[in-house]
Amino acid sequence: MGLAGAAAAQDRPDQARFREIYKELIETNTSLSVGSCTEAAAKMGARLKSAGFKDSDLTYYAVPEHPKDGGVVAILPGSSKTAKPMLLLGHLDVVEAKRADWTRDPFVLIEENGYFYGRGTSDMKVIDATWVDMLMRFKEGKYQPKRTIKLALTCGEETVNAFNGAQWLAKNKPELIAAEFALNEGGGGRADKDGKLQTQGLQVGEKVVQQFRMETTNPGGHSSVPIRDNAIYQLAQALLKVRDYEFPMQMNDTTRAFFERGGAGRTDAQGLAMVALSKNPNDKAAEAELNKDRGFHSMLRTTCVATLLDGGHAENALSQRAGANINCRMFPGRSMDETKAALEAAIGDPGVKLTPLQPIRGRPTPSPLDPKILGPIEKVTAKYFPGVPVIPTMSTGASDAIYITPIGIPTYGVPGFWSGPEGSGAHGLNEHMAVKSVYVGRDYLTDLVKMLAEQG
């Protein structure tokens, strides 16, 4: 079915139930402050059971310290004894949303002027609903794939230092989610202002978050007799060094493909620079052109930036302590130790203490740009979106892939859904997704999962 045909067919009986699942997820508050992922997981498990999944096919999990942050893993057995399973990954939790700030109630699914509104409509309950609805239809239709299909619905992705279900599963139940690869959030398409789809993105790899505490200390004294040796001034000088330090440019297979495909056919300076740098990473002129774009600049290197600041203990006293939080996004394959050493060298002051903060993550292996994944995605994209290129992308943010890839499961952010130039409002106000995008993306992912599940 082409885009136009799929977009027009939004009243099919199977879509009505999908919409019910989508609505139930949106209207089950899963924010950290007052919500419950455990409740949402139970509701999704009940729906899977209604479609024929047995209790033995479902594994619920939670820990006593975080009873509301539970999740569920569902298994649809495959027919092959040799084909390795595939994993569908989805986080149930959402970013906080205050009713007073939103135009509409963030925890009510509202359809208005061709859009669905609500917290989680794009990040990422639309994918969660798609995975659940898809497995229900597979079970009811007695479809048995070659590969076993696993679904893990987790909690804690949106909040640093919260209980994270994907991390817990990777550490405590790796055999339960073991798979040849995983499909996750992070991909998706972009449409122009007129709604015409321009690209579909496949996320292959992402940067790794590492926080550092930067701190200076001093004996201090009375503010009436100031001296240059001042903890705040010393910290300020170090912060300027961090601001001015440029990590070296790096590229991998994914970013090289991103710039090559993204710049193909363009004649503007940026497009030409994208292609030039993909062919020659030492092209300084091309790098300088791309560095003008904040997103491209970040995609080409590790970045570190000050995000929090504190210091002093009294208005009439010289500061005895000053500190800042340094938020680093490390290029895949780069370690915390390497990043720390580079910052310390740039600062050049042994009196500035740099301490890595938990969680300290290892050096995960980037997911490969695997033809067994990319090929089917290109085929399904050509079916639904003729002429729209698939662009491999490396996320400068982070997802639960940071816990899944280190245990040997390459993880990919799927295409299918899309948003316009204004974005979807994810993490912000009035989060939304176009109705066409929701229904077409659901059909797209159903075909993609079937194609991948028949491999082997």
Shape designation: globular
CATH fold annotation of the largest domain: Aminopeptidase
The appropriate CATH architecture of the largest domain is 3-Layer(aba) Sandwich
Radius of gyration: 24 Å
Give a brief description.
With 456 residues, the protein is an alpha/beta fold. It has two domains: 3-206 and 365-453, 3-Layer(aba) Sandwich (Aminopeptidase); 208-356, Alpha-Beta Plaits (2-Layer Sandwich), CATH 3.30.70.
Main attributes of the structure:
35% helix, ten-stranded mixed sheet, Alpha-Beta Plaits, 15 helices, disordered N terminus, 456 residues, 23% strand
Task: Please outline the helices and strands.
Blueprint lengths: L2 H6 L4 H14 L10 H14 L7 E6 L2 E11 L9 E6 L18 E3 L2 E3 L7 H16 L8 E6 L10 H8 L1 H4 L3 E4 L3 E4 L5 E10 L1 E10 L3 E2 L8 H14 L8 H11 L5 H11 L4 H7 L3 H6 L3 E9 L5 E2 L2 E10 L5 H12 L5 E4 L14 H14 L5 E6 L5 H4 L6 E3 L4 E2 L12 E3 H19 L3
Parallel strand pairs: 3-6, 3-7, 7-17, 8-18, 9-16
Antiparallel strand pairs: 1-2, 2-6, 4-5, 5-19, 8-9, 9-17, 10-14, 10-15, 11-13, 12-14
Helix pairs in contact: 2-4, 3-4, 4-15, 8-9, 9-10, 13-15
